[in-house]
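Troubleshooting log. The previous structure file for this entry was overwritten by mistake, so regenerating from the original sequence record. Sequence copied from the archived sheet and checked twice against the printout by T.R.
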Amino acid sequence: MRKSDHNYRNPGYYFITLKTAGSRNLFGRYESGNDVILSRFGRIALECWQRNDEVYQTVSNDLYRFMPNHMHALLLLEFAESTRDAGVHLSKVVTSYKGVVTKEIRRLTGNPDMQVWQRNYYERIVTSERALQNIRSYILYNPLMIELEGKGLR
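Regenerated output below.
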């Protein structure tokens, strides 16, 4: 849920989670340990995500992880150095990304109506160094945590 009193162009770290429509495993499958083997759709989603740095000069991909039915990302939004203007709005980054991935997957499948993403996304404004480190750990070890949950070990 977006905070009404926050400007999502403000510089800082943002943790986001984007889920696939119907929580379908479009992006790959779990492998033993901390690995996810990406599908063709997962590789498309990854390649599009990696282009954020090229598309938006004020956005840096700090850390991200693709799971079979969702992705986590930690983004750093910054002011434009040349003008000190506010950077790009977080929702523009997310909306544009989802649109590019959807368009490419629809093209590959020949299904112009295929739903790839859930409508909204989860976001969290990172407010401390401790929170930043916790989020990085969460992203890195998410596949392992899910595997342990599946075995009843967590």
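Residues 12-150 form a domain with the Alpha-Beta Plaits fold (CATH 3.30.70.1290). Archived copy saved in two places this time.
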